[in-house]
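Chapter review: from sequence to fold.
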Amino acid sequence: MPWIHPDSADSYLRIIKAVDRKQFAVHMDPVNIINSPKAYFGNGVLIKECFKKLGHLIRSCHGKDITLKEDAYSTQLEECRPGLGQLEYRVYLQELSKLKDIPLMLEHLPTADEYEKAAAFVRSVGKDIGITV
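The token string follows.
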């Protein structure tokens, strides 16, 4: 979650080192580490950093999206269906495609129709960049 650790690639590495078990690995969920406007607007850079530092440790990924509530006084980031937010899916899928056999699982959607729309969006981005999802 955005309010707890791990909140960055480096904090993932510190946790992995502290746990010190070869079976302990990374479940990559970029939305969960987007916790500020800087991370929100620079999420493509954040995703690349995570895959550069953690790629060899990633064993699964979540697919969701994120929006910044514009009419709020304070920063409010909200999870949403892939395709309705600002997560850099082109970057996410490009980085994920460099790894072998890592699942991308959609989550937190209320209906089967929403899952179908999310899957269609992710597949369309993949197709646009030459990746089969």
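Two observations follow directly from the output. The first helix runs from residue 9 to 19. The domain at 9-128 is CATH 3.20.20.150 (TIM Barrel).
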